[in-house]
């Protein structure tokens, strides 16, 4: 209904972004609204409930379509596969509410400048602004462009020159007030929902859990220094900040209350809150360029190196020539990086996991069953001539019996227990519903450095080079110092280390490199003066024991920080009393591309391969001399990074973590695919994959190289077999190279693996998209991947119906961690918000633990679902049988079954822990699967038969009489001697239930059957610990069964009277036990021999020719039958048939088509 719109009635919000939505304009119509109010009253509140669940229906019922410009209500629809609707009211902001000394008029200079979105949003002449608020973000109506636009950020189109010119002196008080009113406060508020509202929301959203975390407590109460254009510097509470304000950063250890772009001075920042990695990051000022290009794209370097993000800590602020460190506020409130993370927690990606969708479907089936029961009840009681009020009560009772209200809670308890067990292991979770998704993971991506390998790098040696090529390796193990020269100077100065409280801190690689030089670090004094250089710069000096070093020290004048996208960093330095130099450090291939070709040894590629194939991490160094005439800030990065002289290679050992190999072997033996995604060298990654067991010795590695279109030749892709070679080793330093014994290869189906670089992945995605799924099916190593490419790769795996886990150290993996179904960040921070799961233990042992707990939680959810369904059906069948005699269970009988039996079982049944071994198959991921449905239907039918047999047999007993309401034995030893006590039928209990032999029989059968079903459905191996290890549950079952048998066989009149039961002969009680025992044996045999017999179901699948519909399994079958795959030692071009674009497949994200058992 919401799809037919004229121009102006429909638009896109956040076009091209992750949270893109369609927006439709509507106007409320009075007569429609009146009819809806009347409908709400006459439906006793059911209509508002429907509107709550279906906001689109609410809008369509109350409003008529109109243009967005005239709309007072908008309907939003996400553009992803979920198509989720939400309704928002259009609100107004009035500028007349400003307490400004300036009298604002429509032609005031502050308002007439329509360069910024804020002024375009002000409607003239009445000076008011239309806006909507969606997921904590404000969107104002742009009168000039006729669309809603996000507010609370500086415009992206601004050039660096414009930022310096327009905001370099700060804002006036009037500008601040207008922006404050329109943009809203700079706060990240997470409201504590009142209990009553929380209860209502939980009832209205039965399959959600509360995910409220105190992540932003200190954010809104920071005092900052702000420079105004006329007012000068003043102290201000951070909640009053607006985009465009000029911040003055003073002192150290400052928490950033907003996102800001640095325009003067430099800062060292701890971005651990965002990345999970507490390594200091250097931020440089945004250079003032004449170009009108937007500031974010003016350079190939990542713009984030100029941005101070909200929530990060400024460890050190260093002023430049102007004497102050200044930053322009970029974004405030929920628009900031921290705000975005908090929003991702408050509004997580929809969990379209089949379990929850199927649960809703099953609930609807139960509602249908209840409707049939209601019709049956109405017919029976109307024909019996019962009063109308009793008929309505009985009919409504059937709904509460057939549809178990505790089902959502029961499905959640398994997750809660799993979360507690994970917390004990140091694994923290901010999205509990994803624990169930962990049980379906069948592919895990790992970052290499810091995840599979140790964080700490050992400096193995350095390979200097000169005009004649590479020289002998200088090993640092000998303790001999590196001779003075440009290479030594590069190692001493080309880094991002800082001096904090007398301690050198920074990236572990930089730290190892600097320590190897034995130099010292200090801050220059006030008497340090060099042309174009301020005092208080970082200076590195040779230690006192060092000899033959002709310079006093080296001052680090300017840094171009390391960027994973650029794969390099550069510094400009000044030798004291010597030359001004530039040093570069980075990935060898990247650094070599900036060097003069004649300075790069001809053996560069082969020399590099020697080390990378042995698993070493290799860094290249280069340098050049600079003119001293220029100010350091006047140097453009492009100019500095050209015509360099190649210096040599730095060789670092990156050893595997002890836990890596056993964990990968465990995952592979469980048939869970393992993939490496790293920013490191391809050869190093291949060696680490072999060493870790990700690729066994018997399996081949095929290297894929893809190149972009160049000149007349089209894009190409080549396939080369990587052959193992015996490499030259140096001394006894090759311990890392030796490959130990591998796990047996019986569980692996693939005999080859693809390895490729980020560049090749990009080219394949662009020019060979039809080959991409084929590459991904066997792609195991992805090297030199940028953060964006990591996210893309995870998404491509999801498109193939894999349930993807991603494990990384949080540094460059944030996007991939968020994109994956299960993101696990290895961080010491307990509440890292970079991913759904965070492990305090910095190794990959958490991955199998998480999968085991996920599988256990998933199986527990199924157990509880089956149990709750059976419990409700047992009660439903019993009550409908009693309704036939216009009878029912009493309040105390219902209470005993609901509280004493079902509730306690529901709480304790889920306590089984995860089974310690990962088996090579996953639990079912959906409720609507043949084994589960068969189990539920069979047990319902079995219970139905038992109840009907008991109901009919009791009426045919010789002692049964409609007018006799007690048949107890006088002497227990003589069951044949009966004393019959005639009594008048008595109406007992507030619900009007009659005591009868049918009631007593049905109640005992139903109550004990609930205990039997709990035993049958409580699963142990292979996903959960055996049931007997759940001592509390076993004790509960024994106690409950004992109490029920005691009530059954005890002749205590007072107890029977309170429970509205009648005494029956002992022989009949034995019959009840026999019926229940028969039910238990049949149910157990069927459950174990058929329902849980995986081999039987696999044979049935083969007999019927069933094949999985998962995309990756379809591709695997196709490739297995393709004799030409994989191509080896071949090259293909994009203009060749069958190599270009042409594949199309959807991204189901949390939904898999794979039918599992």
Automatic annotation (TrEMBL):
Which EC number(s) are documented for this chain?
7.2.2.-
**Gene3D superfamilies hit by this protein:** Calcium-transporting ATPase, cytoplasmic domain N, Calcium-transporting ATPase, cytoplasmic transduction domain A, HAD superfamily/HAD-like
Q: What is its main location?
A: membrane
Q: Which SUPFAM superfamilies match?
A: Calcium ATPase, transduction domain A, Calcium ATPase, transmembrane domain M, HAD-like, Metal cation-transporting ATPase, ATP-binding domain N
What Gene Ontology molecular-function terms does this entry list? Answer: ATP binding; ATP hydrolysis activity; ATPase-coupled monoatomic cation transmembrane transporter activity; metal ion binding; P-type ion transporter activity; polyamine transmembrane transporter activity
Write down the InterPro entries for this protein, in alphabetical order. Answer: ATPase_P-typ_cation-transptr_N, ATPase_P-typ_cyto_dom_N, ATPase_P-typ_P_site, ATPase_P-typ_TM_dom_sf, ATPase_P-typ_transduc_dom_A_sf, ATPase_P-type_domA, HAD-like_sf, HAD_sf
Q: Which UniProt keywords apply?
A: ATP-binding, Magnesium, Membrane, Metal-binding, Nucleotide-binding, Translocase, Transmembrane, Transmembrane helix
| Enzyme class name | translocase
Catalytically driven reaction(s): ATP + H2O = ADP + phosphate + H(+)
What's any one GO cellular component for it?
A: endoplasmic reticulum membrane
PROSITE patterns per record: ATPASE_E1_E2
Identify the residues that the record assigns to the P-type ATPase A domain, covering every copy. Answer: 222-345
Q: What organism does the record attribute this protein to?
A: Propithecus coquereli (Coquerel's sifaka)
Q: Is Magnesium included in the keywords of this UniProt record?
A: yes
Question: What CDD domains is this protein classified in?
Answer: P-type_ATPase_cation
Q: What is this protein called?
A: Cation-transporting ATPase
Q: One GO BP annotation here?
A: intracellular calcium ion homeostasis
Asked if the record carries the keyword Nucleus, the reply is no
Q: Where is the Cation-transporting P-type ATPase N-terminal domain?
A: 165-207
Where can this protein be found?
Membrane
């Amino acid at each position: 209904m919401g799809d037919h719109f004229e121009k102006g009635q429909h638009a896109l919000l956040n076009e091209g972004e992750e949270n893109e939505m369609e927006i439709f304009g509507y106007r409320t119509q009075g007569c429609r609204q009146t009819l809806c109010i009347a409908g709400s009253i006459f439906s006793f509140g059911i209509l508002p409930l429907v509107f709550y669940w279906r906001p689109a229906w609410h809008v369509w019922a109350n409003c008529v379509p109109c243009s967005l410009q005239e709309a007072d209500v908008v309907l939003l629809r996400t553009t992803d596969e979920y198509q989720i609707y939400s309704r928002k009211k259009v609100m107004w902001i009035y500028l007349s509410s400003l307490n400004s000394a300036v009298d604002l008029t429509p032609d005031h200079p502050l308002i007439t400048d329509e360069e910024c979105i804020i002024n375009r949003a002000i409607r003239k002449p009445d000076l008011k602004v239309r806006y909507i608020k969606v997921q904590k973000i404000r969107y104002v109506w742009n009168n000039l462009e006729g669309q809603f636009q996000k507010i609370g950020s500086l415009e992206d189109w601004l050039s660096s020159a414009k930022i310096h010119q327009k905001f370099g002196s700060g804002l006036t008080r009037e500008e601040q007030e207008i922006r404050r009113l329109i943009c809203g406060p700079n706060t990240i508020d997470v409201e504590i929902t009142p209990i009553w509202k929380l209860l209502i929301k939980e009832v209205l959203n039965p399959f959600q859990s509360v995910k409220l975390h105190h992540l932003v407590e200190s954010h809104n109460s920071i005092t900052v220094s702000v420079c105004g254009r006329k007012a000068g510097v003043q102290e201000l509470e951070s909640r009053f900040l607006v985009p465009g304000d000029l911040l003055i950063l003073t002192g150290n250890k400052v928490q950033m209350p907003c996102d800001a772009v640095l325009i003067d001075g430099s800062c060292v920042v701890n971005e651990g809150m965002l990345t999970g990695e507490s390594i200091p990051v250097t931020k440089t000022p945004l250079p003032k360029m004449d170009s009108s290009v937007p500031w974010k794209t003016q350079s190939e370097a990542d713009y984030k190196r100029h941005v101070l993000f909200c929530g990060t800590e400024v460890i050190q602020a260093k002023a430049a020539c102007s004497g102050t460190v200044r930053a322009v506020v970029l974004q405030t409130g929920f628009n900031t990086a921290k705000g975005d993370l908090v929003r991702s927690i408050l509004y997580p990606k929809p969990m379209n996991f089949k379990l929850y969708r199927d649960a809703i479907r099953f609930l609807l089936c139960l509602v249908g069953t209840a409707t049939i029961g209601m019709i049956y009840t109405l017919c029976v009681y109307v024909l019996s001539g019962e009063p109308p009020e009793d008929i309505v009560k009985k009919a409504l009772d059937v709904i509460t019996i057939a549809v178990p209200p505790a089902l959502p809670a029961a499905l959640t308890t398994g997750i809660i227990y799993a979360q507690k067990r994970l917390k004990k292991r140091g694994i923290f979770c901010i999205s509990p519903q994803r624990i169930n998704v962990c049980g379906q993971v069948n592919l895990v991506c790992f970052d290499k450095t810091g995840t599979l390998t140790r964080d700490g790098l050992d400096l193995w040696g350095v390979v200097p080079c000169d005009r004649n090529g590479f020289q002998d390796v200088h090993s640092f193990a000998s303790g001999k110092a590196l001779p003075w020269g440009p290479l030594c100077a590069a190692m001493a100065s080309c880094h991002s280390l800082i001096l904090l409280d007398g301690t050198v801190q920074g990236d572990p690689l930089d730290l190892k490199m600097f320590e190897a030089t034995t130099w010292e670090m200090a801050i220059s004094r006030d008497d340090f003066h060099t042309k174009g250089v301020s005092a208080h710069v970082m200076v590195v000096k040779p230690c006192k024991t060092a000899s033959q070093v002709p310079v006093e020290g080296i001052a680090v004048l300017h840094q171009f920080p390391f960027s994973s996208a650029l794969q390099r960093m550069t510094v400009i330095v000044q030798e004291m009393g010597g030359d001004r130099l530039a040093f570069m450090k980075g990935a060898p291939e990247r650094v070599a591309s900036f060097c003069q070709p004649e300075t790069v040894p001809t053996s560069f590629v082969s020399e590099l391969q020697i080390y990378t194939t042995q698993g070493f991490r290799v860094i290249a160094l280069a340098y050049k001399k600079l003119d001293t005439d220029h100010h350091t800030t006047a140097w453009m990065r492009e100019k500095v990074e050209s015509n360099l002289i190649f210096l040599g290679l730095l060789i670092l050992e990156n050893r595997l973590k002890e836990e890596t190999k056993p964990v990968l072997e465990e995952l592979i033996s469980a048939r869970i695919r393992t993939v490496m995604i790293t920013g490191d060298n391809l050869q190093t990654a291949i060696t680490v994959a072999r060493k870790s067991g990700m690729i066994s010795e018997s399996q081949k590695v095929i290297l894929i190289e893809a190149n972009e279109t160049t000149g007349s030749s089209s894009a190409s892709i080549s396939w080369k077999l990587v052959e193992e070679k015996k490499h030259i080793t140096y001394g006894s330093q090759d311990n890392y190279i030796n490959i130990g014994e591998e796990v047996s290869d019986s569980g692996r189906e693939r005999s080859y693996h693809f390895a490729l670089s980020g560049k090749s992945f990009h080219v394949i995605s662009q020019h060979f998209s039809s080959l991409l799924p084929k590459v991904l099916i066997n792609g195991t190593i992805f090297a030199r991947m940028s953060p964006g490419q990591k996210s893309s790769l995870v998404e491509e795996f999801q498109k193939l119906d894999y349930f993807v886990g991603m494990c990384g150290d949080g540094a460059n993996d944030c996007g991939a961690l968020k994109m994956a179904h299960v993101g696990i960040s290895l961080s010491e921070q307990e509440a890292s918000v970079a991913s759904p799961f965070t492990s305090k233990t910095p190794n990959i042992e958490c991955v199998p633990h998480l999968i085991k707990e996920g599988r256990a939680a998933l199986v527990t959810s199924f157990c509880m679902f089956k149990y709750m369904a059976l419990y409700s059906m047992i009660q439903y069948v019993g009550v409908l049988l009693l309704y036939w005699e216009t009878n029912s269970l009493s309040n105390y009988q219902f209470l005993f079954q609901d509280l004493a039996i079902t509730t306690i079982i529901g709480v304790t049944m889920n306590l089984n822990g995860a089974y310690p071994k990962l088996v090579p198959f996953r639990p079912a991921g959906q409720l609507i699967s043949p084994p589960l449905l068969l189990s539920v239907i069979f047990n319902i039918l079995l219970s139905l038969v038992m109840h009907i047999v008991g109901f009919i047999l009791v009426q045919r007993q010789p002692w049964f009489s409609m007018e006799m309401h007690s048949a107890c034995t006088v002497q227990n030893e003589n069951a044949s001697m009966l004393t019959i006590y005639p009594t008048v039928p008595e109406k007992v209990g507030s619900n009007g239930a009659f005591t009868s032999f049918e009631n007593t029989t049905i109640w005992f059968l139903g109550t004990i059957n609930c205990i039997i079903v709990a035993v049958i459905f409580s699963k142990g191996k292979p996903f959960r610990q055996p049931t007997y290890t759940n001592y509390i549950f076993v004790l509960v079952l024994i106690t409950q069964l004992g109490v029920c048998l005691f009530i059954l066989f005890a002749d205590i009149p007072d107890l029977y009277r309170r429970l509205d039961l009648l005494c029956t002969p002992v022989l009949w009680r034995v019959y009840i036990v026999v019926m229940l025992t028969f039910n238990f044996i049949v149910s157990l045999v069927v459950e174990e021999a058929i329902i849980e017999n995986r081999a039987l179901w696999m044979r049935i699948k083969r007999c019927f020719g069933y094949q999985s519909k998962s995309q990756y399994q379809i591709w695997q079958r196709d490739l297995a039958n393709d004799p030409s795959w994989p191509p080896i030692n071949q090259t293909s071009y994009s203009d060749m048939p069958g190599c270009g674009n042409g594949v199309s497949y959807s991204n189901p994200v949390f939904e898999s088509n794979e039918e599992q058992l």
